[in-house]
Amino acid sequence: MCCVCMANDPSAKIMPRGHTVACRDCTKKLMKLRDPCPFCRRQIQGYELGKWTSSTGAAGLWPALLKNLSELASGEGFNDYFRDLFNGNEASWRRWKEVFDVLGIAKGGGGSIETQVLGITNSEDLVKLRALAKLCSKEYFADPSLLVVAWRRIMEVLDVEEEVGGEKGEKEERSARALGILDACKALGYACNSVGDFEDARRYSKRAKDGYEEQLGREIEKALEGTYFLILSSNMTRDDYIEKLKALVKRMEKSLGEENVVTLDTLNQLGINLHKNGEVEEAKEVLERSLAGRMKVLGVDLKDNVNDGG
Prior knowledge:
Residues 2-41 form the RING-type domain. The chain is mainly α.
């Protein structure tokens, strides 16, 4: 069923990704309005008539989440799923369940699971969109492709709200709105990087970094983390990459402290790349510093970090 009109069969293969989620008439309307593909939120570059059967679901853009949502969305089924998943840890079970419940997804209600998720990613409901993004994160179902889609839509909604809101509201309200957009930019940049979309990763990470620096200053945590994400997505030699990370670690240690989590994440990334570059002794020293700092700050055993170097 077309996810726009909810009446006709989907018949247009939308380019550039080839997703078939809308009928021809609705696709033409989307193009006329310059709206993005309702599935991946990318700008439409044309369409072909026909159906690409792998465009959604288990063989498509977000297989991990679809599988889990299908198991969860079955009446009381999700209660058993969460209880089994967390082996009696009620606090964790309830934390997951609360996020899932926000989506309002259920089998047999509102169409297929795919249609219900598409309904969320095409909505302006920031509460549901943020819940969907959270459910796609590494902490939950780890579905990076749908995470990108969710954050793209969040950015679209926030940008429209900013355009409409403009200079309305008190100074604090306008500042909070602007920072919310920058936070979404940073999250989208990081999500794009995780799926190999480095061009958009750089674009959104730079927008976040520049915005933070303008609003808050160059040496605050958000701006420095934005710089870190921008380095992650940059196209440079490993030697240049290492030098950039070394310089950033020094700035972070001076401004944020050696035991700041963002500093330690950057230090860990530096160690991994030193190891990949064959600088084994320096990599070992850097990774051990990162590990010791994390264990002190978080109070947990993170020995796997040392193994990240290969």
